[in-house]
Amino acid sequence: MEHIQTLSTLRGRLVLRDIVRELRYEKQVSSITTLLTCWRLCCFEREVYRYSKRQVTVIHKLGLFRGTSLWLQEVVNRFYFSTINSLVYLGAAILLVVISGYRFTDRVDTKLVIAGVGLEALMLVILFVVMFFSPSDDIDMEDVAAETEDSSEMRELIGEIGDIATDYASAGVRLESIAVALADVTARQDELLGAVNDVARAVSFAANPQPEFIETMRQTNLTLQAFHLNVQALVEATHTLRREEIQRAVRVEVERMLEQRIR
Questions:
Q1: Domain boundaries, the chain
Q2: Residue pLDDT tens, the chain, 263 long
Q3: Are 76 and 35 in contact (CB under 8 A)?
Q4: Which of 1, 80, 93 is nearest to 47 (CA)?
Q5: Is 141 exposed, middle or buried (0-12, 13-18, 19+ CB in 10 A)?
Q6: Predicted model pTM
Q7: Measured between alpha carbons, how far is residue 17 from residues 7, 14, 66, 263 in Å?
Q8: Least packed by Cβ within 10 Å: which of 68, 79, 91, 250?
Q9: Which are the contacts of 47, defined by CB distance < 8 A and separation ≥ 6?
Q10: 3 state DSSP class of 255
Q11: Other beta carbons less than 10 A from residue 195's beta carbon
């Protein structure tokens, strides 16, 4: 959506001319409807896109007098001046015919002559108003259109540059996140390599034990053997004590039985 301050600006005048051409030649709208629509746009309307395919919105309305002046300059004067001029000549021709008939014949009434004079005077007044509101400065609208196209292309180029910059920024952020992820992966890989190295050293140590390890294992075996002997001795002593306790208990019981029988 394009926004312009008023239709009286150079860009607004160019848009107004394009709307007239669109209504007359593309949509084939009648001249009266075209004039009324353009007068409404010049004076009161802001949403130009409601009457044309141009996506334009006017920020400030011109009002009745300024809008009518712009309408006379850019619509009536530029597109209908030849029509009004032709009507003035037609009125002059009709007036000459009426005056000639009134002068040389008696069939033409005086009222008809007065009506012809009034019609011609009205045409001249209309021509005066149209010529009075002719554009004061002759601006080459092709240059304005070219400048507008250049500015629009420049805006599009700036917009594309902004989009590219945004893409680069997002790509930079993504690259930073990827770099952080790669750093994490590298750290984890280093940890895994360390663990693998530890396992490899353990496997190598198990496959090819060192002399210190062998000596430690021998001493451990000797200690275990001594512990086993001590356990066996403890078991035998326990058995001996148990036999002695059983014998003592049997002796005590036999003595008790003998004493009972003797009594």
A1: 1-79, 81-139, 209-262
A2: 788 888 888 888 888 888 888 888 888 888 888 888 888 888 888 888 887 887 888 888 888 888 888 888 888 888 888 888 888 888 888 888 888 888 887 777 888 888 888 888 888 898 888 888 887 655 555 555 555 555 566 667 777 777 777 777 777 787 788 888 888 888 887 888 888 777 777 666 665 656 776 777 778 878 888 877 877 888 787 888 878 888 888 888 777 777 777 76
A3: yes
A4: 1
A5: middle
A6: 0.47
A7: 10, 5, 17, 156
A8: 250
A9: 57, 58
A10: helix
A11: 10
The b/e string for 87-109 (b: 16+ C-beta within 10 A; e otherwise) is bbeebeeebeebeebbeeeeebe
Q: State how far the alpha carbon of 97 is from the alpha carbons of 4, 91, 92, 107, 113, in Å.
A: 51, 10, 9, 13, 10
C-alpha closest to that of 80 among 126, 26, 143: 126
DSSP state of 56: E
- Identify the DSSP state of 72: I
